[in-house]
Amino acid sequence: MRIRATVAAVSGALALSALAVPASQAADAPSYSKEDVRAAAQAARQADADGPARSTFAAEDTGTPYALDLSFSNVKINSGKPIVAGISNQVTVPVTYTVTHEAGMDLNAADLMIDVEIYRGTTYEDATKTLFGDDWPVCTPTSSTTDTCKGTIDVYPDFELVNADATTWKAGGYAIDWNDQDPESEDIDWSKVGFAMQDGLGSTKLQRYSKLTVNASPEPVQKGKTITVTGKLSRANWETHKYAGYSTQPVKLQFRKKGTSTYTTLKTIKTNTYGNLKTTVTASTDGYFRYRFEGTSTTPAVSATGDFVDVQ
Q1: Which fold is adopted by the domain 5-207?
Q2: Smallest Cα–Cα separation from 124: which of 169, 178, 64, 166?
Q3: Do domains 5-207 and 210-309 have the same CATH topology?
Q4: Residue pair 307/288 in contact by the 8 Å Cβ criterion
Q5: Do residues 275 and 232 lie in contact, with contact meaning Cβ atoms separated by under 8 Å?
Q6: Alpha carbons 124 and 145: distance in angstroms, whole number
Q7: Is 26 helix (H, G, I), strand (E, B) or coil?
Q8: Of 117, 186, 228, 233, most Cβ neighbours within 10 A?
Q9: Domain 210-309 sits in CATH 1.10.1410.10
């Protein structure tokens, strides 16, 4: 399992400082983490900026990574669905993709690190925030030059998200071939490190988990009398780690007659400043009332569980 850490690349070496790593994870984890590898990628890019990437290990290439013959395609994050996170529970979603590479390359080799991540920012190279999987992907060869890889994106809303993160995230991928070198070494020979990075691999939405309640009363009620239907629409606040009302949002009041399976929309109302809902209808027949929210770009659709009213 990989460890989340804060790192920096200084003069081509890795400065490592793991943050809040549980002892149980630390005991099972490798000596370097996913963020350590990101630091190495940063250092590789910096080294590459000093001269063109080369494809040989010639002596004059010392300090410059060579370009890996490798590319990503067919990236799919969470099966094409948005990633929805609440206020505390870890969320893990699948990531699948195809990697095309030079013949004979073993993507599961211990000294080759590869992954697809999601990020916020203008470009992958200059990402302001990145989310990735706790475990390394598993790649299965489909030919001598292609692999199908399966990984994850792991999201921790209790410490790594803010509300502004509810937006569209882009996808990028990288690969580093250390060629038996130690990523933690201060004497890395970058001319023996292969590096590839690719942006524009797709996108996904990260959304704030939503909740919706309903209560129809009185129960039972006489036919022709007034039924008052109340409820509340709320969503995860990743900064207070509580659920807060979602204000001024259109919500449908729907009804399903007893013995049927389909809800019909009666009217659409808006939540108030606190996310509360309240409206009235005339009692006509036994059935279930519910509220239905169709969602926004930052918040998924949600339906309340139907509340049965006995009309006498």
Answers
A1: Immunoglobulin-like (2.60.40)
A2: 169
A3: yes
A4: yes
A5: yes
A6: 25
A7: helix
A8: 233
A9: no
